């Protein structure tokens, strides 16, 4: 597992160009602070300018004149004049900053005499410069391999986040589907209960209407038959008894149906409660899964921290080994360079000696040819003289 490349580590600049860049930025920030302090104090205190050195005071006066010219050019809306005054203002600002840096101690003493610390007239500019320095420092300390590690780490984080979001979306969709199914089932059961309640109400209403109709009919007949004979009264009483018996049967039957409907209602309510309990159990299981995932995540973070500590422990040993290798490599490079220089010098010496030897041999051959002609003539003469003597 890779370590977190975003953890800050103590580093130092090893490149001369990087140190020069940061020194230039630091000098620019120092100039900006001094110039802003001078301008701030000059705007607040009219006598402050008299406490400055002569060259700084003159440069400040020229800067104020260039600033007034630039404001006048902005009011006139002349682009050529604006450009010329802007260049003049930039030049005077650079001159003022250069002279202010040279006389930094005198200017700080002048500012301290006023008992008013220079406030940041434009804190946005200084904040931007400090952010630029921090960004340059970080980029100069970061190697290409470290930047690649950061990019890979970010890609892994984005991939893990996408996976977690996909898992969460899937769980949310499952939960939505389950809630929708549960809602549909509850609506069906509520409609069924409402239908049963309506049927029970209609049965009660019908029983009451039948009872009222029978009662009214019985009362009407009793009133009509009160003047009839006793036999008819007896018959009517028997008929009333039979009707009352039928009414009791109807009421008992309706009571049985009502009890049956009530049992169905209680059963449906128990099933609904069971579904609700199942839903609660399912949600608890999913919450347990989420808690387990979070526990694994915490363990992974601890493991990452442990690996980071091991990496920090090995980093010092690695730096020492790399320093030794660098020293050995520099020695080898110096030896190879010395050997190459000696080989090149030997080659040049051999080539010059070869040319010198060849030139010398050629000169000797030329002299030999000239001398051989004279020796041939003299030889003949000597031979002839010897012959004569014989």
Summarize the structure.
The protein has helices at 16-44, 54-76, 79-102, 104-113, 123-141, 144-225, 230-389. With 390 residues, it is an all-alpha fold.
Describe the structure using short key phrases.
390 residues, mainly alpha, 7 helices
Strands, total number = 0
Derived structural class: mainly alpha
Question: Which term fits the overall shape?
Answer: elongated
Beta-strand share of residues: under 5%
The largest β sheet comes out as: none
Q: Give the fraction of residues assigned to helices.
A: over 70%
The N- to C-terminal Cα distance equals 115 Å
Computed over alpha carbons, the radius of gyration is: 57 Å
- Series of H and E elements: HHHHHHH
Which stretches are poorly predicted, pLDDT < 50 over at least 5 residues? 5-13, 115-121, 374-390
How many DSSP helices?
7
Let me know the average pLDDT: 78
Protein model, in words:
It is built from 7 helices and no strands. The chain is mainly α.
Write the layout of secondary structure elements.
Elements: H1 16-44, H2 54-76, H3 79-102, H4 104-113, H5 123-141, H6 144-225, H7 230-389
Helix pairs in contact: 1-3, 1-4, 1-5, 2-3, 6-7
């Amino acid at each position: 597992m890779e370590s977190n490349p975003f953890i800050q580590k103590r580093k130092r600049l090893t490149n001369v160009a990087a140190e020069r860049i940061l020194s230039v930025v630091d000098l620019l920030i120092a100039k900006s602070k001094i110039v802003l302090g001078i301008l701030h104090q000059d705007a607040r205190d009219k006598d402050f300018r008299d406490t400055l050195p002569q060259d700084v005071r003159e440069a400040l006066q020229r800067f104020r004149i260039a600033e007034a010219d630039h404001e006048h050019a902005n009011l006139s809306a002349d682009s050529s004049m604006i450009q010329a005054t802007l260049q003049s203002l930039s030049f005077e600002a650079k001159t003022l900053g250069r002279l202010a840096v040279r006389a930094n101690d005198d200017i700080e003493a002048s500012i301290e005499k006023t008992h008013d610390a220079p406030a940041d007239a434009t804190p946005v500019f200084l904040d931007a410069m400090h952010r630029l320095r921090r960004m340059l420092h970080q980029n100069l300390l970061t190697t290409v391999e470290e930047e690649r590690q950061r990019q890979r780490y970010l890609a892994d984080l984005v991939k893990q986040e996408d996976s977690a979001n996909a898992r969460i979306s899937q769980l949310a969709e499952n939960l939505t589907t389950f809630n929708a199914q549960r809602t549909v089932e509850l609506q069906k059961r509520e409609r069924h209960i409402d239908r049963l309640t309506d049927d029970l109400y209609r049965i009660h209403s019908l029983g009451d209407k039948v009872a009222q109709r029978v009662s009214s009919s019985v009362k009407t007949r009793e009133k009509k038959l009160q003047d009839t004979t006793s036999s008819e009264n007896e018959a009517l009483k028997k008929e009333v008894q039979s009707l009352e018996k039928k009414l009791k049967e109807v009421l008992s039957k309706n009571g049985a149906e009502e009890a049956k409907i009530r049992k169905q209602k209680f059963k449906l309510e128990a099933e609904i409660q069971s579904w609700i309990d199942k839903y609660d159990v399912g949600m608890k299981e999913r919450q347990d899964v989420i808690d387990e995932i979070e526990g694994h995540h915490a363990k992974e973070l601890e493991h990452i921290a442990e690996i980071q500590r091991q990496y920090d422990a090995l980093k010092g040993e690695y730096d020492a080994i790399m320093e030794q290798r660098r020293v050995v490599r520099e020695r080898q490079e110096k030896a190879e360079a010395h050997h190459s220089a000696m080989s090149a010098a030997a080659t040049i010496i051999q080539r010059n000696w070869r040319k010198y030897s060849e030139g010398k041999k050629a000169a000797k051959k030329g002299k030999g040819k000239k001398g051989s002609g004279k020796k041939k003539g003299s030889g003949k003469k000597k031979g002839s003289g010897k012959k004569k003597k014989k």
